[in-house]
Design brief:
Helix content is about 55%, strand content about 15%. The chain is of the alpha/beta class and about 160 residues long.
C-alpha cells in the first residue's frame, strides 16, 4: 500500500472532492443518461466516488477492482441484452474505469473502453469534469446505438441518476 495514496484517501474529505460534481452537473448527467438510453437497448450507470472505503484501501484495491465490485453490486451485469455499462469515476486517484457487460464488450473490445477512459481522465486533469463525463456518455452512446439500437419499446432497467459514494 502506498502511504501517499492512503493519506490522500483518509485526509481529503468527501465533500471537498465532490465539489466538482454540483447538483446541476449531476442533473445534467442524469438527463444525458436518460436521453442516451432512449436510443438503444443498453443501460448506463455512472458512479462517482471520492474516497475508497477503508477496507478497500487496506487491501490496496485498485480503481479497476472497485469498479468491478460495483458493477456486480449494482446489478449492471444483469440487463436483458447483456449491454450494461458502468462508468466509475474515482476522484482521489483521478482514475476513470469502465466495466461493460459481455454483450457490448464483445462488440467493441477493451481498447475502445481504455480509449474512452484516457480521454475522460485527460479532461478531468484539466478540471473539465462536465466535459469529460459527457464525452464518455456520448462516445458510449454511439457504440450502444450502433450495436444495440432501440427498435421500439425500451424498458429502463437501471437508475439514470449518478450514484455518489
Amino acid at each position: 500500500m502506498q502511504l501517499t495514496r492512503l493519506l490522500r484517501h483518509l485526509l481529503l474529505p468527501d465533500w471537498w472532492v465532490l465539489r466538482a460534481f454540483s447538483p446541476t452537473l449531476l442533473r445534467r448527467i442524469e438527463e444525458a443518461v436518460a436521453a442516451s438510453e432512449s436510443t438503444h437497448l443498453g443501460e448506463l450507470r455512472v458512479v462517482v466516488e471520492a474516497n475508497l472505503p477503508l477496507p478497500g484501501l487496506w487491501r490496496d484495491q485498485t480503481p479497476r477492482q472497485r469498479a468491478i465490485d460495483l458493477f456486480a453490486q449494482l446489478g449492471v451485469w444483469d440487463t436483458a441484452c447483456n449491454s450494461g455499462v458502468l462508468i466509475y469515476l474515482q476522484l482521489i486517484d483521478r482514475r476513470v474505469e469502465i466495466v461493460a457487460d459481455r454483450g457490448i464488450d464483445a462488440r467493441v473490445g477493451g481498447e475502445f473502453w481504455r480509449g474512452v477512459c484516457r480521454k475522460v481522465e485527460s479532461a478531468f486533469q484539466a478540471g473539465e469534469f462536465e466535459r469529460g463525463t459527457l464525452l464518455a456518455l456520448n462516445t458510449i452512446t454511439e457504440a450502444l446505438r450502433e450495436h444495440f439500437p432501440a427498435p421500439g419499446e425500451n424498458p429502463d432497467e437501471l437508475p439514470n441518476a449518478p450514484l455518489l459514494l
